[in-house]
Specification:
CATH topology of the largest domain: Beta Polymerase, domain 2
Order of helices and strands: HHHHHEHEHEHEEHEEHHHHHHHHH
Strand content: 5-15%
Helix content: 55-70%
Distance between the termini: 23 Å
Mean pLDDT: 85
Radius of gyration: 21 Å
Structural class: alpha+beta
Number of domains: 2
Largest sheet: 5 strands, mixed
Shape: globular
CATH architecture of the largest domain: 2-Layer Sandwich
Low-confidence stretches: none
Length: 365
């Protein structure tokens, strides 16, 4: 936590002096920054003369080397995003870029500063996402299958030409990857309020600032129960979005939280950004969201508990028929999904056993 706290302080522009004597291996600092997704950001801050003079040349060199690699990966991902957007335009598909794929071009000073591991796209329907997948997989991508359309609300395509060119493309048809959040917003309302991303491509569009804030909060909440942590890059997204907000944006955000019952989800992310990066929050926003959260079914304090989330997913689905389909998809995911994630070369039974063991492990948490 000492290293993570130091990284957060550097991102705040405080330029603290890290007790390097307590860090026997400087590569540990780089490793934590990489895990938190902020290598490029920290490297940029290290160019500040006041901070650079306090740091060992070895540490500066380590960050410079990895930052160059991250920048190259960003350029490759950007070129591929442009190619994919052009292909989707040929298919006549409307698409919105999500998460870092859009934020890199809307709130960051330069695209490479927002590290991404994939390209995220949102479509109006599952059928549209499947059409996009079919078009993209005409090339060097594969789509191994999904656990079930109610279980994930997304399908993933992988470019497997070689390890250096590996790329993941996530095709979503719900704003969140679980029934809890998937239907909170229609694609139509998101697209109508969306913003152009001309720095990426003429047809590129991303969520409005307020919608992006809510989606970042939802993504963060889902990451908590998936066990992928609360990485600095995700909290920094919220900070930068909040810094861009006008008073009208804040009022719009609060209004949508109340309407969509996302007060608790948004408040948790807002508090995390304020605590970590000292994001300025207008007076009254916390109080309104806190009051609204008390009337909502989701308890963010329990989001790290896998059984609780599965119960809330089940409750979120209307009707016994959809609930039964969701249970079936969770208990018996499709063959392609099992083979890809749990054992490509060892048969379906072995993959299914691994899948069950993972589920049982979650129940014991």
């Amino acid at each position: 936590m000492l290293i993570r706290s130091w990284l957060a302080a550097v991102l705040r522009g405080e330029g603290p002096a890290l007790a390097l004597a307590d860090c026997k291996d400087l590569s540990e600092i780089l490793a934590v920054a990489d895990e938190e997704g902020v290598v490029a950001l920290i490297h940029e801050r290290m160019q500040t003369p006041g901070l650079a003079a306090k740091l060992p040349p070895e540490l500066l060199g380590l960050f410079a080397d990895l930052a160059r690699l991250k920048a190259a990966q960003s350029m490759m991902r950007e070129a591929e995003a442009r190619r994919i957007l052009k292909r989707l335009e040929q298919e006549g598909l409307q698409v919105l870029l999500l998460k870092g794929s859009a934020l890199a071009y809307s709130v960051y000073a330069a695209p490479h500063l927002r590290e991404c591991s994939d390209i995220d796209c949102l479509f109006a329907t599952r059928q549209a996402a499947q059409q996009a997948s079919d078009a993209i997989c005409e090339g060097d991508y594969i789509q191994p299958g999904i656990a079930g359309e109610l279980a994930t609300f997304e399908m993933t395509c992988y470019r497997t030409r070689d390890s250096a060119a590996y790329l993941e493309l996530d095709l979503h048809w719900g704003i969140g990857g679980s029934p809890i959040y998937a239907d909170r917003f229609s694609f139509g309302e998101l697209y109508e309020a969306s913003m152009a991303l001309p720095a990426l491509a003429p047809t590129a569009r991303g969520l409005s600032l307020a919608h992006a804030y809510l989606h970042a909060s939802i993504h963060r909440a889902l990451n908590l129960w998936r066990g992928t942590g609360d990485h600095l890059k995700w909290i920094y997204d919220l900070h930068l979005l909040g810094e861009r907000f006008t008073q009208s944006d804040w009022e719009n955000l609060v209004s949508m939280c109340l309407e969509k019952k996302l007060c608790g989800t948004c408040l948790d992310g807002l508090i995390s950004a304020a605590d970590t990066f000292h994001t300025a929050i207008p007076e009254g926003v916390r109080e309104i969201l806190s009051q609204g959260a008390q009337k909502e079914p989701i308890n963010l304090r329990r989001m790290r508990h896998w059984p609780y989330i599965q119960l809330m997913n089940l409750r979120a689905l209307p009707g016994l028929g959809l609930k039964a389909r969701w249970l079936g998809q969770r208990l018996f995911p499709r063959r392609g999904f099992l083979h890809h994630y749990y054992g490509q070369d060892q048969g379906r039974l072995v993959a299914f056993i691994r899948y069950l063991r993972k589920g049982i492990g979650h129940l014991r948490e």
